[in-house]
């Protein structure tokens, strides 16, 4: 049975799902050295934001197949290191959207009305109504930086509260922003005009210290800034100085440059600053959502299935996956087949999406084809995560083409591999109830479902050849399950595809090519 380590607190609903397929150990609060010591025993690691999964931990995790982040941000995981090792990294892109958006809105209102300090004052025994006069958000301008899932939800609630909405997000269209009720503006204008600024962007090299002494200087002296996205987007010393000097009105932060927050000027500021300990996703609902979402993906990957929200498998979102899953299986089978027909070192793979398939995303099919192609060399070491990298490292060039005009089957996939021993091609389609069929080998039309063990011959189409091959295989006790010949013209060149019950014993290929009329023979395991 597989073993899963859960190293941060996650909801029991997730543990229950993992327990269906694995032994689950929950060990929270581990020091990095302790994690390194035990991680080698585990097939999967499930975390929240508390565990930093460094390259060292990934390298010590020799059995790891998947790292599941119960939340959105994977900035606490060394994703490139995981990718190099072929470890899938999954997250829960939507499970805590509402929780994080509501936390940002709660922070905005709490900051405006001094709720935390007023509450603390009453609890201390005071009844001070003069110190906590606040401001209304109604008719004020909210500047939203990052109009993705969380930013959009904040926008719709803020709109209902009567706020005017400005947004900055270079990756969304003006139409999309307008749909959500936001005016898309340049960042400087947003800084100059907003009464409240809320950040909903990832932490990247462009967004690190986006809010600094210079940008803070562009804001209104009454502006209040809210960060429930990621620590480090705001330069904290500059923020503390700006609040102290009255250059901005205040700030509410849920996330920090270093967590847990250590010594910080922010702690000593008054009611203009509110701090929460990374609570954006901390609702019962969100924790159930993310735990189930990520645990299901870990379960699937441990069962050999693809994950729906893998961050290191390009182009493989849940919607794409649903539609392309059967074609990915087809691509992998064709990749295995063409790789073995080509033999030697493959230098070029042409992946052609044909017919209806031509309108689909090609990237997942390219990855699956490469996974199949590299299986011969790498076996279980190659997977959807590292297939691209492994192919690049081996100097395999990939060309993707599309031909919507091919109408033989509703949608088909054609792979052509060129290597040190020549060029071979295979085509396949899904027939009936999504059953894989080989429809062409080296330009010869056939129609056979692939089987685990197969033999292909290139021969001259002439009387007696099938019988001779059958007798030869029979004499070596090889049982033929099915056989089909593909030819373009009568008595021209032809391809024979044989499904056999067991692997072809060593030395028989050499005997097959001695049969008069047979020019070449290949055996493959799919
Ligand atoms: N505090 C918490 O507990 C908590 C919980 C959930 C998410 N988060 C964080 O909230 C943030 C937003 O999450 P989301 O789910 O909305 O992500 P998302 O991917 O749906 O949205 C992010 C948006 O930021 C935009 N963006 C990227 N770079 C930008 C840039 N340089 N300038 C402006 N916009 C840019 C993108 O186009 C996208 O629309 C992330 O940092 C996430 O880690 C925090
Ligand atoms: O695990 C948490 O509570 C934080 C989650 C949040 O920061 C996220 O990125 O999803």
Structure summary:
Helix content is 33%, strand content 24%. It is of the alpha/beta class and 526 residues long.
Write the layout of secondary structure elements.
Elements: E1 2-6, H1 12-19, E2 22-26, H2 32-39, E3 44-47, H3 55-60, E4 66-69, H4 79-84, E5 88-90, H5 97-113, H6 115-123, E6 141-145, H7 149-160, E7 164-168, H8 174-179, E8 183-184, H9 187-193, E9 196-199, H10 213-217, E10 224-227, H11 236-244, E11 250-253, E12 273-275, H12 284-302, H13 318-342, E13 346-355, H14 363-378, H15 387-393, E14 397-403, E15 411-419, E16 422-431, E17 435-441, E18 444-448, E19 453-460, H16 465-475, E20 480-487, E21 493-500, H17 508-512, E22 518-525
Parallel strand pairs: 1-2, 1-3, 3-4, 4-5, 6-7, 6-9, 7-8, 9-10, 10-11, 11-12, 13-14
Antiparallel strand pairs: 13-15, 15-16, 16-17, 17-18, 19-21, 19-22, 20-21
Helix pairs in contact: 1-12, 5-7, 13-14, 14-15
């Amino acid at each position: 049975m597989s073993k899963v380590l859960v190293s941060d607190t996650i909801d029991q609903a997730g543990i229950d799902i993992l327990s269906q397929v694995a032994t689950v150990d929950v060990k929270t609060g581990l020091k990095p050295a302790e994690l390194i010591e035990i991680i080698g025993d585990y097939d999967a690691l499930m975390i929240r934001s508390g565990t930093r999964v460094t390259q060292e931990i990934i390298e010590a995790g020799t059995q790891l197949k998947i790292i599941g982040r119960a939340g959105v941000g994977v900035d606490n995981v060394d994703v490139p290191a995981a990718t190099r090792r072929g470890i899938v990294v999954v997250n829960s892109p939507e499970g805590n959207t509402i929780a994080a958006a509501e936390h940002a809105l709660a922070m905005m209102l709490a900051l405006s009305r001094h709720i935390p300090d007023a509450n603390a004052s009453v609890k201390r025994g005071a009844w001070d109504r003069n110190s906590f006069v606040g401001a209304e958000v109604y008719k004020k301008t909210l500047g939203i930086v990052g109009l993705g899932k969380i930013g959009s939800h904040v926008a719709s609630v803020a709109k209902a509260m009567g706020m005017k909405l400005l947004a900055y997000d270079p990756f969304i269209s003006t139409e999309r922003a307008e749909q959500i009720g936001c005016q898309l503006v340049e960042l400087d204008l947003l800084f100059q005009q907003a009464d409240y600024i809320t950040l909903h962007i990832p932490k990247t090299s462009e967004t690190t210290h986006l809010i600094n002494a210079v940008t803070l200087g562009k804001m209104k002296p009454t502006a209040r800034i809210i960060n429930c996205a990621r620590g480090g987007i705001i330069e904290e010393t500059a923020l503390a100085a700006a609040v102290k000097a009255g250059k901005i009105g205040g700030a509410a932060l849920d996330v920090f440059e270093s967590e847990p927050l250590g010594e910080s000027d922010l702690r000593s500021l008054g009611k203009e600053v509110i701090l929460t300990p990374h609570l954006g996703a901390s609702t019962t609902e969100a924790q159930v959502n993310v735990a189930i979402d990520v645990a299901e993906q870990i379960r699937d990957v441990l069962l050999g299935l693809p994950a729906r929200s893998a961050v290191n498998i390009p182009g493989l979102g849940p919607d794409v996956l649903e539609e392309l899953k059967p074609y990915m299986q087809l691509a992998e089978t064709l990749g295995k087949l063409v790789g073995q027909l080509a033999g030697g070192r493959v230098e070029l793979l042409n992946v052609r999406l044909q017919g209806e398939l031509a309108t689909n995303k090609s990237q997942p099919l390219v990855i699956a084809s490469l996974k199949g192609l590299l299986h011969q060399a790498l076996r279980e070491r190659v997977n959807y995560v590292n297939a691209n990298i492994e192919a690049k490292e081996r100097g395999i060039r990939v060309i993707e083409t599309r031909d919507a005009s091919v109408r033989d089957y509703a949608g088909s996939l054609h792979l052509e591999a060129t290597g040190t021993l020549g060029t071979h091609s295979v085509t396949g389609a899904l027939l009936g109830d999504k059953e894989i069929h080989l429809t062409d080998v080296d330009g010869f039309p056939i129609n056979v479902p692939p089987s685990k063990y197969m033999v292909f011959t290139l021969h001259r189409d002439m009387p007696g050849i099938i019988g001779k091959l059958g007798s030869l295989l029979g004499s070596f006790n090889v049982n033929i399950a099915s056989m089909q010949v593909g030819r373009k013209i009568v008595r021209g060149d032809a391809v024979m595809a044989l499904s056999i019950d067991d692997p072809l014993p060593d030395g028989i290929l050499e005997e097959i090519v001695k049969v008069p009329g047979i020019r070449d023979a290949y055996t493959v395991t799919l």
